[in-house]
Write a structure and sequence with these properties.
Strand content: under 5%
Radius of gyration: 36 Å
Structural class: mainly alpha
Helix content: 55-70%
Shape: rod-shaped
Number of strands: 0
Distance between the termini: 108 Å
Length: about 80
């Protein structure tokens, strides 16, 4: 029993300085690191999405709207004549 108490006291005396060295430098929990990585990934994907959306909107604005049935309709296509 005396040996056990002596070992515990010796370990406590040795762990004190070791604990003091790393007191303010504890790494963040793994879940927090994972959440930060997911957040950064989501922001990157959002930026890429917005850039792609800008590219496609620019191309869509240049395109003119055409009516494929314009040659098939008559001159006066009012609803009152039907």
């Amino acid at each position: 029993m005396k040996r056990l108490i002596a070992v515990v006291i010796a370990l406590a005396a040795l762990m004190g300085p070791v604990y003091a060295q790393f007191k303010g430098q504890t790494p963040p929990p793994p879940l927090q690191v994972e959440q930060e990585q997911k957040k950064k990934e989501a922001e990157r994907v959002d930026q890429e999405y917005k850039a792609a959306l800008k590219r496609t909107q620019g191309a869509a604005a240049e395109k003119t709207v055409t009516d494929p049935w314009q040659n098939m309709r008559g001159v006066d296509d009012s609803k009152t004549k039907r």
